[in-house]
Amino acid sequence: MAGSRSEAPVVIAVAITGSVPRKTDNPAVPVTVPEQIESTHRAFEAGATLCHIHVRNDDESPSSDPDKFAAVQEGLRRHCPGMIVQFSTGGRGRDPAARGLSLKHRPDMASLSTGSVNFPTIVYENPASLVSDLASQMKQYGVRPEIEIFDLSHLHGAKRLVEAGLIDARPHVQFVMGVQNAMPAEEHLLDILLAETRRILPQATWTAAGIGRNQAIVMDWALARGADAVRTGLEDNIRVTKDRLAASNAELVGLAAEAVARHGRRVATPAEARAALGLA
User: Fold this and answer.
1) How big is the chain by its Cα radius of gyration, in Å?
2) Which of 84, 99, 128, 132 is the residue whose CA sits 20 to 30 A from 116?
3) Residue pLDDT, tens place only, 40-86
């Protein structure tokens, strides 16, 4: 993991829906399978090469339905050739026993949180037994994990998975900053996380996600430090400015591409994104 990578392309990840924002918050949030495919297709054309997917029930509540995950994946593989498909195994509103059900459909990647953390109104529970079980399923199905880091200790949770042989020594990690009651979006904290990652997971690739109004500034911090990827999308942030809602995931991807260019780098192609993150 390099400290300065001015020549390296940047993967733009788009988190299209999430489990919290509703269409009543921003009508651009895609909820149904066709909406998700169309929104992602436009984001792909704007430069996104990784799509992070949650699915919803008809009432917009979070869903664990593996068939819905499969339907979105099928549409993306048809309309967004080469795009990295990443399923969420997150737990907000989902039965822990159902969080890995979609992995049998063998997405390219899946999110994997390696520890519990306080969220705005709940405790996001990730006990060690569940983390190991999800990691084992990902290994079984050939799914590459993205390690979600909400706290410094979660890096050591990832290291334990490496030592147990459940993930390889080159994980892709994402620092999540700005969730209420969790890790604040403060620049010096990113430096601490990066230093510890380089110490205990020296081969890791990395990105950082800023939640809400923190999205743009965290992206800039990450790019200034040579991140392999940046993350944007309506899951994390439904506004372009305080007074204007984002029109689409594609608009947010376009802003991310502009940030990449400001830092003297370029947006990765699908093939470059796969190579950067260790995918075929």
Assistant:
1) 17
2) 84
3) 999 999 999 999 999 999 999 999 999 999 999 999 999 999 999 99
Report the SS3 class of residue 15.
Answer: strand
Q: Are 82 and 274 in contact (CB under 8 A)?
A: yes
Q: How far apart are CA 188 and CA 251, in angstroms?
A: 29
- 3-state DSSP helix/strand/coil percent for the chain, to nearest 5? 40, 20, 40
The per-residue DSSP string of 115-183 comes to S-EE-SSSEE---HHHHHHHHHHHHHHTPEEEEEESSHHHHHHHHHHHHTTSS-SS-EEEEEE--TTS-
State phi, psi for 21 to the nearest 5 degrees.
-60, 140
Distance CA 175, CA 266 (A): 22
3-state secondary structure of 31: coil
Give the integer Cα–Cα distance in Å for 100 and 121.
23
DSSP one-letter code for 269? P
- CB 57 within 8 Å of CB 89: no
Three-state DSSP at 48 gives: coil
pTM for this predicted structure: 0.96
Would you give the end-to-end CA distance of the chain in angstroms? 19
Q: How far apart are CA 3 and CA 277, in angstroms?
A: 17
Provide φ and ψ at 133, rounded to 5°: -65, -45
Helix (H/G/I), strand (E/B), else coil: 267: strand
Q: Would you list the domain boundaries of the chain?
A: 11-276
What letter would DSSP give residue 239? E
- 70 token code pair: 């499969």
213-254 confidence digits (pLDDT tens) = 999 999 999 999 999 999 999 999 999 999 999 999 999 999
The bridge status of strand 123-124 relative to strand 244-245 is unpaired
* 11-276 maps to CATH 3.20.20.70: yes
